[in-house]
Design a protein that fits this description.
Structural class: alpha/beta
Low-confidence stretches: none
Strand order of the largest sheet: 1-2-3-4-6-8-9-10
CATH superfamily: Divalent-metal-dependent TIM barrel enzymes
Number of domains: 1
Largest sheet: 8 strands, parallel, barrel
Radius of gyration: 20 Å
Length: 330
């Protein structure tokens, strides 16, 4: 069997959380440095996506030292452009001064990407969008979102920038809401350093087939990163990968394999009430079993079944290999 891929995780996986009910949080606050230590305790992680700004008092040098201490690298930096000051949007805010503030902050985060030697700047503009019919002019939103990303890309031509799309939350409707719209927006930018980070759960609860979304982005040369997790399809639950939709997760990774896509298999999960390190370990256990299943899958037989659109034949092949390989994982 070939070597396992590199595994990664968003550093937020190891933080503590609150919601509109448990407003005091589900655990004491966890600093950026403590999150890195927890990520290092997983054992199979090699990279992390680092939110910016760091927790209070933590510097870039502190983060570099902590990553080195725990044998980790930064794959990306995710600037928090979805907080209160950007509640009406970052790129699409109606106030030009706020849009300028967002761009300045993103450029600052780009410098952190350089300082950490990360692979990309990840843009998740969760507040860009709308909540009610007639709230926005959709033509103007398109122009602001696309031109803002273009300006960011041109100001940081030496870096890769990835957009993580999502159908909704925190806005009732996010601007970058699907693989197709994000691909169209990137094409309209006319730059070559912007791609897509596909979050499996976002595609799933947005009504997409994650595998089909991945294929679309690969065909257009835009799948530059991915996150995996799981959900109950009605919300971005960010559950442990494979706990709800193991077959669709398998199809997603099958699509990556047949297209020779090589990249980090990265977790984007929020274990609110669970031990964060154990949740990551269980996720990677599943991913290792899935990797073995991909190695053992009879690809020719599956292609023949697909050529006939033989749903039952394809399902039998998938079930036989996927669930037997998972049983072999310790």
């Amino acid at each position: 069997m070939s070597e396992y891929p590199r595994f990664g995780a968003g550093l937020w996986h190891f933080a503590s959380y609150l919601d509109r009910y448990a407003t005091d949080g589900y655990a004491p606050p966890v600093s950026t440095i403590e999150q890195i230590a927890r990520a290092g305790a997983v054992g199979d992680l090699s990279v992390v996506d680092v939110p910016y700004p760091f927790t209070e008092g933590v510097t870039v040098e502190d983060v570099k030292a902590a990553l080195a201490e725990h044998g980790l690298e930064a794959i990306g930096v995710t600037p928090e452009i979805y907080m209160r000051r950007f509640s009406k949007g970052a790129f699409t805010n109606p106030d030009a001064a706020v849009r300028a503030e967002a761009l300045a902050f993103l450029n600052e985060a780009a410098d952190v990407v350089r300082a950490l030697g990360a692979k990309y700047l990840k843009v998740w503009p969760g507040q860009d969008g709308w909540d009610y019919p007639f709230q926005v002019n959709h033509h103007d939103q398109w122009e602001l979102a696309v031109s803002g990303m273009r300006e960011l890309a041109q100001a940081n031509a030496d870096l890769k920038i990835v957009i993580e799309y999502k159908p909704r939350e925190p806005r009732n409707k996010m601007f970058w809401d699907s693989a197709a719209k994000t691909a169209l927006g990137i094409k309209a930018m006319g730059v070559d350093n912007v791609g897509v980070l596909l979050d499996f759960g976002h595609a799933l609860y947005g009504g997409e087939s994650p595998a089909a979304a991945a294929q679309l982005l690969i065909d257009h040369g835009l799948l530059w990163g991915m996150d995996v997790n799981d959900n109950l399809r009605g919300w971005d639950d960010d559950m442990v990968v494979g706990t709800v939709h193991p077959v669709e997760v398998f199809e997603f990774f099958y699509t990556l394999k047949i297209n020779n896509w090589e990249g980090v298999w990265q977790l984007d999960q929020f274990p609110f009430r669970e031990d964060t390190v154990e949740a990551a370990k269980l996720s990677i256990r599943f991913l290792k079993g899935l990797h073995r299943a991909l190695e053992e899958m009879d690809m020719d037989a599956l292609r023949e079944a697909q050529a006939r659109q033989d749903a039952m034949g394809a399902q039998k092949l998938v079930q036989d290999v996927l669930f037997s390989c998972l049983r072999d994982e310790p």
